[in-house]
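Q: Can I see a sequence and its folded structure?
A: Here is a first one.
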Amino acid sequence: MASAPDRSGVHEPPGPAATPVRRRGRALEQAIFQAVFDQLLEVGYAGLTMDGVAAAAGTGKAPLYRRWPDKEALLSDALRDRLPDADDVEIVGDLRRDLLAVLRFMFSACTVAGDPALQLAKAEADATHDVVRARVSVPARRMMLDVLRAGEARGEVRPGAATPLVARVGIAVVVYQNLTGGDGLDDAFIEQVVDEVLLPLVRNPDGPAPGQGG
């Protein structure tokens, strides 16, 4: 039987190079935003660079610099994208259900803000506080006040209870629960805040009973 030829000195031609995945639009944007959070966990905000994000996202620097002048602007947009959108909150004209909807929006935002990567960013990047305020805090207070005023117009909320200060109460309870560790911050807790704090505080005893929708 013939022995196999000695090929020790023969160099095999390289195989075909892997074709890079070309992403555009939303797919590329999502990859970049995810790379931002991955890099925050790996190197922290101080070590976050546009070069590092581009490499982690598997893209070049040019797509980043065409849209974001620096890492602070990029982080701000990545955070906006991850936080819930107040425009998605469904207000239906029922006091209890609308109070729940606003506080569930806050609950969702607290869940995002608790991400370890964002905790690192918040400690070092002032822009994150501005984004959270504009994207979550201000819209939540506005929605809550609108819900109370609409409830007052329907007779569900006692006259004079729809004030900016009262509108902050439920939101403050949710934020405090989140800041003190978040234990028990779930949908059952949100319902407790509405049923045991907000409704007793604002309900009009002479008006129609609030709906019991969940």
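Q: Show me another, different protein.
A: A second, unrelated one:
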Amino acid sequence: MSGGKVDILFEGQRFSVDDHLTILQALESVGYRFVKGVGCRGGVCGACAVFYRIDGDHTLKTGLSCQSLVEQGMMLMQLPYFPQKKVCHTLEVPAGERPEEHVVHLYPEVNRCIMCGECSRICPMDIDVMGYVGMIKRGDLEACAEESFDCIQCGICVSRCPAQISQPNAALAARRYYGSYRMARAEHLAKRVAQIDSGRYTKDFKKLVAMSQDELKNLYNRREREPDLAAPGTWLPEDRSRL
């Protein structure tokens, strides 16, 4: 149907829109202007989550309105902000407690998981949400950090969870505690921080701050770039004075 029209229903109103548009583009083409429920427009921030059904199909589907194309008979509603638990913490672990235990103490509701799998089925990023909840329960922060890394915090899984688990925030805590306590330290990063603290790049920073926007763009466009297909660790710039 490329180049044609499809009929969609958005919050009770029917519209005929071009079939090559994303949901967000289609709604804006008929006059909607979004202040909330839209963010990066690139599928990263998770702000534009939507629920929808296709006429004649009982299945409840989810997606990101900036990424999902409209379909004939699509019946849509935006996902408003969905309340979910978010614990304030300082990354400090109480004496006598391991980081793995502390994450569960912050989000004890992970133990209520009934393994229905609805969170994994409905995730627009195809993340095994139920799987990483189990990893938190087992104390495997590394595996949880790896599995949940692509989470965009859209909250769709929270809206469908019968156990009222805040999966995205529990996983975020797991990644933070893993990075703070279990992940190997990056020696090259510590070296670079020490160089910055020593004042090695102060003159360069001041020069950049004094540049105009056009000068910065020109400098960026003329930068020496690593080849896209270079094997990790095999490329070095010709100018190595700042390494």
